Amino acid sequence: MYCTIRHILSLASIACLLMLSACGRGGDTVFMDDEAVFTEEDMVTLVLNTDVIGMTRAGVADVPDNEKMKTLRIVILHPDGTVEHNKFIDFESGQTEYNTQIFKVKNREKKTIYLLANEKSVNGLPDLDVYTSGMAGFKAAVDDFHFVPVFAQDTPIPMSSVYEIEIGTGTNRIECQYYLVRAATKFTFRFKNLWSYDMKVTGLTVSNIADRMYLMPHKQNPGTPLLFLENDGSKTSLYWVDWLKKVSDETLQYPDDKTLADWRGWINDYDIPGTAVQAKRDITPASFTVPKYNNSTPGEAEFYLYLPESKNLINAADPYGEQSYTMDITFEYTQRGETYTKTFSGEAFDNLRALFRNTHVVVDVALIQGNTITLTYTVCPWLEYTIEIPSFE
User: Fold this and answer.
1) C-alpha triplet 275, 278, 284: angle, nearest 5°
2) Strand pairing of 372-381 and 359-368?
3) What is the DSSP letter of 132?
4) What is the structure's pLDDT at 28?
């Protein structure tokens, strides 16, 4: 089974391409990096396009504001870990899904490029502006940083990713497409009520959810390519972030195919903080009622929320093996003036074998007269819209 990852990016304005004009005379321009001085011939133009996985630019109007970028930080490191560029972009009142930035970087080096979006939503994150050109320590400050997330409808979701690129001799311009990963998972619950009573959700819990998570993805062996089977039978080797983008595009094309997650595989070779406590998480929505069946029409309602990535192993001896999760749901309804409750306990999240960041779990709940419940699940990379799933039989 392939390891699978979920991830995310953000988009913005391409107007910054106008910044490409060079200053100086002829080829004599010099570029300062700490105490080093480089001539034009030592430098390369690096164009970085960042994007959000799971979003089509035609449909961004429907994306919740907190799932877009409000800020973006791009940090480029030399091979010795010192900072070459540290650029922070604040989109102010706007939210964006894609962005293009242009840098002049030293040639003949392997660069490490960090992307961080919505960092102001990360509790306890140190001031990253202090890491100016030539300084060391940025990698240590963010790689193992973990935090207790606050996921609210008005709080932008943190996003992050890291790439490496080799800048080779003889190249004067390189353009790259990179993606950001949302440091969260998303759960969407969609209810269909076939009972003749309004059903109020008074209890909803999910098992074994971590209380904290890393800011940066902690996938094992991130440089090992993942294989993507193309339609013509060929296999493409991809960096895990780019592999996730391909899987997300495929899910957008076939949104009702619940076999894709198992077909493509799961990213389960990741770590969560050693200090994380995994426990049952109460996610009961406030004052949430599913209307009753009326005039041959089922009552419908839905809500969504965000949770940290987690790791509930079936076999603790296999640290990167298959996982499992369950939920409990309690409903309250009134019949002939009396109030009753109905609880469904230990309901398994079928087809959820890992809960890596940027995973979207869609749960369709059908309440059927006669005290029964039917659950249908779709698990996929984070998508920008509510997935359309065929009607219940």
Assistant:
1) 135
2) antiparallel
3) -
4) 36
Q: Which residues make beta-bridge pairs with 99?
A: 50
| pLDDT tens figures, 178-201 | 999 999 999 999 999 999 999 999
Signed CA dihedral, 48, 54, 58, 59: sign only = negative
Lowest mean pLDDT among 53-62, 115-124, 235-244: 53-62
CA angle 374, 286, 343 (to 5 degrees): 35
Q: Residue 242 belongs to what H/E stretch?
A: helix 240-253
Distances 268 to 144, 272, 354 between C-alpha atoms, Å: 18, 11, 6
pLDDT tens for 82-106 read 999 999 999 876 656 678 999 999 9
Nearest to 197 by CA among 7, 11, 336: 336
Give start and end residues of each alpha helix (H) in 108-151: 138-142
Its pTM surpasses 0.70 = yes
Name beta bridge partners: 182. Answer: 159
Identify the band that residue 7 occupies on the pLDDT scale cut at 50, 70 and 90: very low
Q: Which helix (H) or strand (E) holds 80?
A: none
* Under 8 Å between Cβ of 121 and 153: no
Gap between the Cα atoms of 100 and 176, Å rounded? 10
Question: In which element (H, E) is residue 123 found?
Answer: none
Residue 110 bridge partners (DSSP): 166
The answer to whether 145 and 99 are in contact (CB under 8 A) is no
Say how far apart CA 37 and CA 261 lie, in whole Å: 50
Q: Tokens 């983008």 identify what position? A: 245
The residue whose two tokens read 């298959």 is 322
Average pLDDT, the chain: 84
What is the spatial distance between Cα 68 and Cα 4, in angstroms, rounded to a whole number? 23
Query: Residues 272-281: what's their mean pLDDT?
Result: 97
Q: Which two tokens stand for residue 342?
A: 């109905």
In sequence order, which residues have a C-beta less than 8 Å from that of residue 238 and are 6 or more positions away? 225, 226, 227, 228, 246
Cβ neighbours, 10 Å, residue 110? 12
